[in-house]
Amino acid sequence: MLTHLDSQGRANMVDVSDKALTVREAVAEARVRMRPQTLQMIVEGEHPKGDVFAVARIAGIQAAKKTADLIPLCHPLMLSSVKVELTAEGDDAVRIRARCKLSGQTGVEMEALTAASVAALTIYDMCKAVDRGMIIESVRLLEKLGGKSGHYKAGDEQ
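Now predict its structure.
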């Protein structure tokens, strides 16, 4: 049984050494709501700090690679692919979608969630001088493929 608790009830890292190597992939998203003027400035490339989407994309990729340093008990993973996509949504939001992939013994859900979260935080950091009221919301796992627990897709829980 996989658990983060040992026989004495103490937290520890799960031993995945007996698990098979399989292709594993996870997709997570986050959303940043902001004033329409802020989004317009980002989309038109007029932000005084530079290309907000490019910096947030790089921050998300770096964060995915450092997840084990940020989240206790996460396994350090050799990711084969990390993609972070940022798109304007309506006139007041940015949707961030992070996809992580590897061939390994444990999943990449935490890496995808970390990538989406840090990309959102980077947008906030870059834009806070012009819009302190931004809201980071809806950080969630959208899909997980591979591994013993199989396929998960948000909305299919019923």
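The two ends are 25 Å apart (CA to CA).
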